[in-house]
């Protein structure tokens, strides 16, 4: 029986100690090593019923799943200094009164309530969004967080009640991270956004992405005075108008003002 089929190989297999077998590709029911072995031993892998024809051998699939889970855990540990989980969501960071978490697909209704509110979206360049657009955005944010460890995240209060969203996106192809945030109107004027932005700025400088600029950017529509105030209180300075987005003001922050 092939080592792939009996049990998944340990991740620590060193080349010097034991050469790593080449990855078996789709084996039509038997991996390459099985074919070699069974040709001489004359018996099939016991994990694969003779009539089963999976795309990959069972051992390889189990190994990939185990490895995938371990890699995800390592990545999340690296990107979650405040750590922990709330239900199915991972906590990315905490502020004194709120938590920033990853999304699950079921969050679409809560976010749609904000995305469909013309008052909330009046200063957002994409404007009001329908349920399908909101669902697509959550799907993208879940994938982005898995792949690169940062995206736009969900914000909740200490009791787990949804408050809005905040996090990072790509700044109009300039190579910078762009900070963004949006809270439910019931929470406005109580200092939540200022707290969140302070924590996100700290997170940014503690988790710099080597593939991107150090400076953190934020884009604000002129007239969004609350947002401008939140940024200025947290060390952002007005850089000017954006050549990539001429209808917005560019704010930049080169270092964590709290340090
Ligand atoms: C922008 C937003 C996140 C602010 O949230 P918030 O929790 O009310 O913000 P805070 O309470 O932390 O701070 C708001 C600050 O702006 C000030 N402010 C509010 N409205 C203002 C106005 N019209 N003019 C001047 N200052 C104003 C507040 O006084 C406060 O400053 P202070 O703490 O010095 O008193 C919230 O209004 C929101 O979600 N808006 C819709 C989405 C949005 O515009 N996102 C930003 C896109 S760039």
From TrEMBL:
Gene3D superfamilies (alphabetical): 3.40.630.30
Compositional bias ranges of the Pro residues kind: 1-11
Top-level taxon in the UniProt lineage: Bacteria
Domain N-acetyltransferase: 98-256
InterPro entries cross-referenced by the UniProt entry: Acyl_CoA_acyltransferase, GNAT_dom, N-acetyltransferase
GO molecular function, one term: acyltransferase activity, transferring groups other than amino-acyl groups
Residues covered by region (Disordered): 1-31
Name assigned to this protein: N-acetyltransferase domain-containing protein
Organism: Xylanimonas oleitrophica
Organism lineage string: Bacteria, Bacillati, Actinomycetota, Actinomycetes, Micrococcales
């Amino acid at each position: 029986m092939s080592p792939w089929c009996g049990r998944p190989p340990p991740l620590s297999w060193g080349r010097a100690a034991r050469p790593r077998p080449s990855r078996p590709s789709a084996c039509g029911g038997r991996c390459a090593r099985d074919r070699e072995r069974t040709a001489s031993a004359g018996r099939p892998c016991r994990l694969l019923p003779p009539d089963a024809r999976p795309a990959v051998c069972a051992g390889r699939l189990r190994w990939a799943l185990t490895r995938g889970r371990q890699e995800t855990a390592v990545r999340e540990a690296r990107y979650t200094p405040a750590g922990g989980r709330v239900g199915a969501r991972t906590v990315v960071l905490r502020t004194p009164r709120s938590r920033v978490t990853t999304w699950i697909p079921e969050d679409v209704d809560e976010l749609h309530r904000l995305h469909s509110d013309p008052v909330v979206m009046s200063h957002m360049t994409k404007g009001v969004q329908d349920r399908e657009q909101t669902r697509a955005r959550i799907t993208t944010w879940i994938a982005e967080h898995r792949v690169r460890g940062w995206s736009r995240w969900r914000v909740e209060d200490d009791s787990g009640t949804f408050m809005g969203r905040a996090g990072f996106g790509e700044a109009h192809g300039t190579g910078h991270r762009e900070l963004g945030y949006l809270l439910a109107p019931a929470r406005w004027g109580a200092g939540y956004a200022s707290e969140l932005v302070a924590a996100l700025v700290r997170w940014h400088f503690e988790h710099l992405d080597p593939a991107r600029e150090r400076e953190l950017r934020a884009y604000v529509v002129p007239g969004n005075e609350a947002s401008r105030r939140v940024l200025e209180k947290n060390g952002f300075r007005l850089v000017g108008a954006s050549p990539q987005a001429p209808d917005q003001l560019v704010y930049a922050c080169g270092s964590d003002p709290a340090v």
